[in-house]
Amino acid sequence: MFKVKASHVLEWDQELYYQLVYFPAEIISCVDLLLKDLFTKLFIEDYMDAECNEEKNAQKDNLMVLFTDLDRVSDLRSLLPSDINKLVSFQGIVVRCS
Asked: How far is the CA of 54 from the CAs of 10, 14, 46, 59, in angstroms?
């Protein structure tokens, strides 16, 4: 799990933050792919040992990005139908989901 603060993304590039919030499926999958490519270039391509490469490939498959610290934090009960397909942040714990 690779944690990225969305507030840092907002400071760095507001357009990218906007796309992250309004098109999270596309942006998160692109960032996941970039993370796996970077991991491959840095840790897998340099090793000649096949056994080590298999272990690194298994680690690569478990990599994913987690965006935290969004600019807007909502209450779970105040979510609206317009929030569907958006990246939202809320405080609390999830007791049950369906």
From this structure: 37, 39, 13, 9
Cα 60 to chain centroid distance, Å, stands at: 15
Among residues 82, 94, 77, 87, the alpha carbon closest in space to that of 6 is found at 87
- Could you identify the residue written with the tokens 């840095």? 42
Question: Angle between the 24-39 and 50-61 helix axes, to the nearest 10 degrees?
Answer: 160
At 89 the three-state DSSP class reads strand
Q: Retrieve residue 77's tokens.
A: 């009960």
Q: What is the pLDDT of residues 24-64, one digit of tens each?
A: 999 999 999 999 888 888 877 666 566 666 777 677 778 88
First to last CA, the chain: 24
What's this model's pTM, rounded to 2 decimal places? Answer: 0.77
Tokens of residue 16, six digits: 């990218």
